[in-house]
Amino acid sequence: MAAFLLRRLLQSIVLLGIVSIIGFTVLNLIPGGPLAQYALDPGMTEADRLRIASQMGLDRPLYVQYLEWASRMLQGDWGTSYRDGNAVLTVIARHVPATLLLMGSSTVIAVGVGTWIGIRGATHRNSALDYMSTVGAMIALSIPTFWFGLIGIYVFSLRLGWLPSGNMYTIGDGSVLNMLHHLIMPSVVLALVHIAIWSRFMRSATLDAISQEFVKTARAKGVPERRVVMKHVVGNALLPMISLAGVQVPSLLTGALVTETVFSWPGMGRLFLDSLSYSDYPVVMGLLMFSAILTIVANFIADVTVALVDPRIRLA
Amino acid sequence: MTAMTASLPPQTRWWQSRVVRRFTRNWLALLGLAMITLLTLACIFGPALLPYDSLYVDLRARFSAPLTGDHYLGTDPLGRDIAARLLMAGRISLMVGFFAMLLATLLGTLVGVIAGYSGGWVNAVLMRTVDGFLSFPTIFLLLALAVALQPTPVMITLIIALTGWMEVARIVEAEVRSLKEREFVMAGRMLGLSRTHIMFREILPNAMGPIIVAATLTVARAILLEAYVSFLGFGIQPPLPSWGNMLNGAQQYLGTAPWLAIIPGAAITIAVTSFNFIGDGLRDALDVRNDTL
């Protein structure tokens, strides 16, 4: 296990390095580069800008700049927001809980519904439900998340008046119940695509497990079919799903950004868009790097969990 | 040509091939193909046949509901005809989708073939770069690049391709890695063929199936991504219409003019679903393991 952990940790660190190079490239593509905040200041002459550039060390070779940028990132100094002068990490930390809550509740919905559809589809192959869920999943994967959100608001907020159309709380009501009421629609909207993904993966994983010898053995021993499915088949089919949960993080974040925009949900996605509009590049860069690190950490945790549960992986 | 093939046993034309037969038995894939053909023709010829120009502003006819007067799909907040705008937007969205797919597939194939055939550290560097790109949520990377560079249609196409080549690269790499162990590749090496010749003339044609499937699904993804970025206001810029930017601003009129949101979104969903159906049909038709005929 220790060897596996070490190997996997090393892989994550290498990946982190590559991600940081991509991030640094994007940073330097931004018009004016790291000097962007001064680019539009009319009180500043070209000479001033050159002086600042040399003070900030922007006239040094790129790899020196990269190494310094990376080492500052490692020390937790991600720069300060142009907008309110707060440290980037502080700004991000304020918005992370709302996004994690949204992503978490969506994942619970997606895993619950998706796994159920997947198992039903595999145990009742070629049934009406199996066929409908296959076609339904392909359509669900094609619907733009923001459009689904708009339709949801139109139907459930404007026509029926059942659910709020946005924000996390009604002003003046900070109760958990009020927040949950606001959470329902965004989390279902964000879950739709992932229900489709989970059900497809669960279906094929269940089909794989069903054709295994130990299932035949269990049936031959006279284990009731329900127990065979629940214990022997599903238990094994769920294993690869742990890795899927890690792989899904970037796509969840993409969905969260769009969902948060439509529903005015005060999370990282909204922050990212607002920062783009304000040209608040330190926060934009911070979120870009933060989301990639979140993905790498999530994949690491998922792989380690699989290895803990399944000895075949860590011994391979 | 005729003289050469005439003596060969029963000729099979391309439309009689197994792949085509299997594809045409999949009615969802056929439906997708029909929809895309229809949509493409409508976008090419439609604007000329409609009574209104996509940029014609008629302030007296603002917010007309669909099916009122000559405005088949209603008008937008400036009184512009939505049907005309939808078809003009379709030209942009479908073109961005198609060319982004082309670039992404080319780049992904190139990286995949080189990584798969070379192995060793070349493979490690290229495939870890693929992993690196995949660690970012696509929309974050896309938006950051769209702000950094000018959001013209060409640039948006390039950016979407730049964030969408990794899946193709992964598929091609796996395929090439297994193909390079086959006898015909060894034979090629013994004949002294160059590396480039073996990679692109011997191995690549045998990996075309998965590439075609991935390319079709990439069109779907690219159309969807363009819609996301443009909806958020950082993609194709007005007055040039795209399906995504037609939805930008629709949210504030949701109560009074829901068709502003419903119509372009339906167009996106239909186009993307069609490409996904086609891709799925091609996967079944080209997959040798699914050979049941």
Short overview:
Chain A: Keywords: Cell membrane, Membrane, Transmembrane, Transmembrane helix, Transport. The complex is a heterodimer of chains A (316) and B (293). By secondary structure, chain A is mainly α.
**Helix and strand succession of chain A?**
HHHHHHHHHHHHHHH
Over the alpha carbons, how many angstroms does the gyration radius of chain A reach? 24 Å
CATH superfamily of the domain at 88-291 in chain A: MetI-like
Q: Biggest β-sheet of chain A, characterized? A: none
Order of helices and strands of chain B: HHHHHHHHHHHHH
Question: Which secondary-structure class do the elements of chain B indicate?
Answer: mainly alpha
Total beta strands of chain B: 0
Radius of gyration of chain B: 23 Å
Number of helices in the DSSP assignment of chain A:
15
Features:
heterodimer, A: 316 residues, mainly alpha, MetI-like fold, 77% helix, B: 293 residues, disordered C terminus
List strands and helices in order, with pairings.
The complex is a heterodimer of chains A (316) and B (293).
Chain A: H1 2-29, H2 36-39, H3 46-55, H4 62-74, H5 88-123, H6 128-140, H7 145-159, H8 176-210, H9 213-220, H10 225-237, H11 239-247, H12 249-262, H13 268-277, H14 281-309, H15 311-315
Helix pairs in contact in A: 1-14, 5-6, 5-8, 5-14, 6-8, 7-8, 7-12, 8-10, 8-12, 9-10, 11-14, 12-13, 13-14
Chain B: H1 2-5, H2 18-25, H3 27-49, H4 82-118, H5 120-135, H6 138-148, H7 153-162, H8 166-179, H9 183-190, H10 195-206, H11 208-231, H12 243-247, H13 259-286
Helix pairs in contact in B: 2-13, 3-4, 3-13, 4-5, 4-7, 4-8, 4-11, 5-8, 8-11, 9-10, 11-13
Description of the molecule:
- Chain B: One of its GO terms (cellular component) is plasma membrane.
- Chain B: It comes from Salipiger marinus.
- Chain B: It is a multi-pass membrane protein.
- Chain A has 15 helices and no strands.
- Chain A has helices spanning 2-29, 36-39, 46-55, 62-74, 88-123, 128-140, 145-159, 176-210, 213-220, 225-237, 239-247, 249-262, 268-277, 281-309, 311-315.
- Chain A is globular and about 85 Å long.
- With 293 residues, chain B is an all-alpha fold.
- Chain B has a domain at 96-293: MetI-like (MetI-like fold, Orthogonal Bundle).
- In chain B, 68% of the residues lie in helices and 0% in strands.
- Chain B is built from 13 helices and no strands.
- The interface between A and B is large, with 45 and 43 residues.
